[in-house]
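Predict structure. Input: MORN repeat-containing protein 5, 172 residues.
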Amino acid sequence: MEFTGSSYKGTFKNGRMEGDGQYTFPTGTRYVGGMKDGMFHGKGVLFFTSGSKYEGTWENGISKQGKYAFSDGLEYRNKDWDYCDGYDRRFYTERCSGLKPAGVSQLTNLDPPHVIPSGCYDCGDGFYDPNTRVITDYEQHFLRNADDYEHEWIMRTCRKSRDEIAGNSTDR
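Output follows.
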C-alpha cells in the first residue's frame, strides 16, 4: 500500500505498517485503525473527504463486516432500505427535521445547497466542468476526469449552475 502523496503515522515492523495507526491516501481519504503486515487489520474507520465514513473490522486488508454512514448521518442498510425508494422522495434532512413550508423548495440534502460555479454541475461529490471534463471537490481540489459514461450521466441528471443569457436565466 505505497502510493505517491500518501502518508502513514504509526509503527513499522520489517518495513511494513503494523499496529494502530493512521494512513492517508493521496485523495485525502483516511484510515484510522489496526494494521498488520502493511494491510488494514482489526477494527478501523475509513473517513472519506465527502464527510462519509465506513467503520469496519478488517482481516488482512479485506473488510469482514462494517457499516457505512453518509456525511449527513444516514446509515446505509443492505436490507429494508426505505430511503429514496420511489415512495418517499424526501431528503434525509427533511426526514429528520421536517418539510419546509409550502412554496419553499429544498434543492439538495444540504440546505442551503452549494453554490455551483458558472457553467458547472453539482455531481454529488463535487463540481463538474463539462468544458474540461474535470471533477473537483467542493473546495476546488482535483478529484478525477470524467469518462464518457459519467459525463453523459452528469449532463442528464445533475443540478447545473444558473446561466445568465440576455437577461433570462435557466436552471437545470
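The mean pLDDT is 83.
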